[in-house]
Structure formats: structure tokens, C-alpha cells
Amino acid sequence: MRAKKFSPFILSLGGMALVTAGLLIYGFVRITSLETKVASLSADIASTTTALVGVTDNLTHTLSAAEQNIEETKSNISSVKSQVGGVEQTVGTISGTVSTLQKLSKTDPELLQKYSKVFFLNEHYTPERVVEISKEYLYSEDRPEVIHELIWPKLRALIDAAKGDNVIIYVRSAYRSFDEQRALKDQYTVVYGAGTANQFSADQGYSEHQLGTTADFITTGLSGQLGGFDTTPAYPWLLANAYKYGFILSYPRNNTHYIFEPWHWRFVGIQLATYLHNQNLSFYDLDQRTIDTFLANIFD
Ligand SMILES: [Zn+2]
Questions:
Q1: Residue pLDDT, tens place only, 169-189
Q2: 22: CA distance to ligand 1 center in Å?
């Protein structure tokens, strides 16, 4: 028997089939391997993403915690600030009170007392310190006048300011002691009779002049008389400006204490004088308690 012979054609077909099968198998294996890799990568990505989400969540949480801390710190700071502010304010109030008390302890309470027919000043009362008024400010240069030491600069400034406005003001008299006031009253009583003298001159002990804070002003054109002072330019000038230097008109027109004394001006401090000026009140309109609240600042 002869060996069956395969034609070369068939042989080459078989070879091709084998090669193709081999390629298919190789392809299949390769694809499977790639799929596995893709699946593994997908799993990696998924797990990485999960991890990243976790980290982001953690960061977000940390951030919001940090923000909350900052807010809390801010509110702590502002609370501390407001506490410090409160303490400062308290300290300020206390030191203000202390300085007011110190001023008060050094200020003669008589300086803002009412003195008129019903308010009496002790015969032994004398102002703490007085100084002589410079001669060029006096109407009678040969008769020395004194005034409270701390009021003199204010009085001088007032007269200088008037002069700057072409208004001439002189001091006719200032401090009068208890005895001088008594002598003056006696003299007036002899000349005018007791009834008339009582209308315009205070008895000793009831005069603001004994305080050393008060001045009678005079101007030119009155022949040395006080009467008629309200008809001169000096009077309206004083009404408009004296308060700026702490002086007030004690006995204005229609007051119930004395006759109208346009020449008689008392120092009560700039604060009180300004208050009276702005409220259109006179010193004797106020009660003593209200007046006393201005005492600590009388020389400010
Ligand atoms: Zn007077």
C-alpha cells in the first residue's frame, strides 16, 4: 500500500489553519490579560478615588474646625477687648472721681455760695490768697484793689478782650473785707439813710465782695459813678462776653435780691457762667445743690 500523499496545497492550508489558530489563541490570551489589567487598574483608580475622597473629607472637616477655632478666637479677642475697655472705662471713671474729689478738697466751698440778704458769710472769712490788681486796670490808681489770686488772670483777660473790642472797662472795687463793707454801709447809711442804702449796699457778711471773687466795673464818661453803667457800651459787651471769662451778673434787672446792679460781676467759673448764659438764668435762680456741682471745676 502506498502511503497516502497529501498535496502541498492541503499541507499549506493546514499550516495556515494552525498559524491562524495560534494567532487566535495568542490574541485571546492577550485580550484576557489586558482585560485583567484594565480591571485591576479600574480597581486601583476606584480605591485611590475613595482614598482621595476620604482625604478631602478629612481636610474639609479640619478646615471647618480651623475656621470655627478662628471664629472662637475672634470672639474671645473681642470679649477680652470689651472687658479691657470696661476696665479702662472703670479706671477712667474712678480717676475722674478721684481728681474731682482732689479738686474739691482744695477748693473753698464758699466761692460758690449764695450771699445776699438771707445768706451769711462769717465775719472772719477772708479769701485764701489775694493779689493786687495792676494799676492800669484800676479806675483810681491811688487806691489799691486786690482779688483772688486764681481769678486775677481771668479778670485781666476779660478787660484786655474788651479793650480789643474798643470797650473800656476799669475795676472800681474788688475784694472788700467784712470791716470795709461795714464801713462802706455805714457811710452809705449816713449819706442816703438806711432805707435807701439797704437797697443797693449789702450789709457786712452778706456781700459777694468779701469772697474776693467779685468786681464792680466802671467805664469812662460816668464821672466816676457806678450809676448809668448799663447805658454805656461796656454793659452790653459784658452781657455778651463776660461768661467766657467765668464772670456773671449777680443782680440782673428785676431780680428779687437787690436793685439792678449792672456794674457788679462775680466770678463763678467758666463752666457755670457758660451754663447760666446758655440757659438765660441768673446765679440766684439756681438752687445751691445745682450750683455746688460746678465747684470742682471753678478754676478750669
Ligand atoms: Zn458790687
A1: 999 999 887 777 677 666 666
A2: 140
